[in-house]
Design brief:
mainly alpha
Length: about 110
Amino acid sequence: MTSHQKLVMIKAIHTIIWCMFTFIFSYMMYAVIVDKINLYVWIGLLLFGVEIVVLLIYKNHCPLTLIARRYSSSTKENFDIYLPLWLAKNNKVIYSFFLFVFFCGVIYRYWQ
């Protein structure tokens, strides 16, 4: 397998994982909005917790990004994932904001 093929495979896997987390997070936000906080919400939160721990361990970098660096010299934020540049660049800020909104929603629902 060539370096380019390996990079394409890593980008595809990274994008699929990103889509999975986006779907999970969308469900979590939906559950808070409709007041249906259930086991799936807590499992989703656990998965996000694992993701945060992994990012902390790897100094705010996804392990797939570190692997992809072996096959590319690009300095673009989206060299390792099939996302628009602006989204790849701001992904952590966007998710952090919405996680904060999610936690506020969960707290609100439990105080009702």
